[in-house]
């Protein structure tokens, strides 16, 4: 069976159905078989209505009196009805599912699976799934539940899978490291489990398969990188020692170790491919400056690519004077740079040693004389093609050494898997004098009494405040306050303070001007969206307020909090929550810990790898089954990949495997 043929080749899938499936990413026969159930329901455990207890329940009955209406205050449809069996009746409610009006026949029985709970003084079944009793195989212990795709709902997809039941036997093996037939058996049992254990075993194998593919892609990227040639940059201990002795502060041990690892890589004739990850404020820029200095002392050029003009300017203002003491000529190249043509001539002639910039560095007319080291800050903001474009600007067909930096701490399991054997340096110490940021969860109802006195105290000390809002514009459908509205409210309550707002839709020059005024202390309170999340360095800002904190991910909250605590003064962060719900686990973890690496591991467990990887690099990881917290399975896959790579003939023999991992190679490479 050719798994890469169109999904239309399967029984019961015509052009219209195929088009709907393709919109959901199910384009091939392989996509179809790997579209696994999101859950399983056991209808053998159905209870009578009279015997129901609060919690998740399964009941069997008929439905009547279905109606649908719009809620007054919000754009919300409410569909209600009554479910009956021979022991009683119960109210059922669905939200924004008006299609339920057309789903049920009054004379037929259905299984309903949902939450039985108390609402407004009355028990009801809330948003249950529904399955026609006559559609359920009585011999099957579990019923698979699939994600709906447009007009194709779970029951429809189940029917399509059942149409192709005999095709599972034709699925070929994929991996060489497991027994024959295990793949088709696993896929069959994932869709047609005869017990929960059989479904779990099937998913365990398929998770192993995914990890094998991802790790193999990373290892092959590493192998390809080692074939490239780079200009060696020999380590000069005397010059580096002189540079370090002239710094106005002492390096942390973590900075020293990271710098030494980088110097060792750069001394080789294969290109360095190193990821420097450090928590917010850990001193990554200083390590990058050391690497740049080492290359420039050997008469080589260095490029530093930053995602925003603000961040590029900050690097220029901090690294320029620092390196200028040693005769290093630094230039800033952004979209707003005046006299760009003249500057580009100086870059191509080699007159400029360190070029710091944004996407302007990537344009075809930006040429270098001897680019040897590329530093990419917040590397996840740049796609693979952009990084490769800068790498190709090195002369004589030689690849530049690459140092990628990120302030998003990456869980160890994610490092091992996504980045394979990529060299990783970790800065897990804060510079001397930095203090942990005290963090508090604060219900909005208590904010006036507790927060405003703290703001007044902070500004009285000539320190500054960030206030983060989620929305740019007012929206009457939600209770979220926009940056403009919050700024107006703060001005009304605190008329003596200098308050301004900032958001991503402002023109670049306007944003830069506001940030410059905040950095220079001309603004007391900056009300902003997450546009300040990365790279903004204002040591005098000591108080951070994050409104609607429950609406952000853990990693983003940690990044936002890192905008304060960058000086020696004690800093504080308030996580303001709305409503009366209990704080989420991610908020409680953030309140307890300032350790970004611990929080990254927690985030991995809470959200899974897809979202986290999406935050690290363009292109979603999209692991459907595997968990990157399963270290035993990761280790097993790593060992087996090592064995696979010992025989080069495997690359030709296992064609489907090599075709699948090509997509992973595109998103795991740094070079």
Keywords:
671 residues, alpha/beta, OB fold (Dihydrolipoamide Acetyltransferase, E2P), Rossmann fold, 7-stranded parallel β-sheet, 23 helices, 19% strand, globular
What report would you give on this structure?
With 671 residues, the protein is of the alpha/beta class. The protein has four domains: 1-42 and 141-171, no CATH class; 45-137, Beta Barrel (OB fold (Dihydrolipoamide Acetyltransferase, E2P)); 237-427, P-loop containing nucleotide triphosphate hydrolases (Rossmann fold); 438-593, P-loop containing nucleotide triphosphate hydrolases (Rossmann fold, 3-Layer(aba) Sandwich), CATH 3.40.50.300. Helix content is 38%, strand content 19%. The strands form four sheets. The protein has a seven-stranded parallel sheet with strand order 10-11-9-12-13-8-14, with helices on both faces. A six-stranded parallel sheet has the order 15-20-19-16-18-17, with helices on both faces. A five-stranded mixed β-barrel has the order 2-3-4-6-5. α12 (384-391) links the parallel β12 (371-377) and β13 (401-406). α6 (196-227) packs across α23. The longest helix has 32 residues, at 196-227. Residues 610-621 have low confidence and may be disordered.
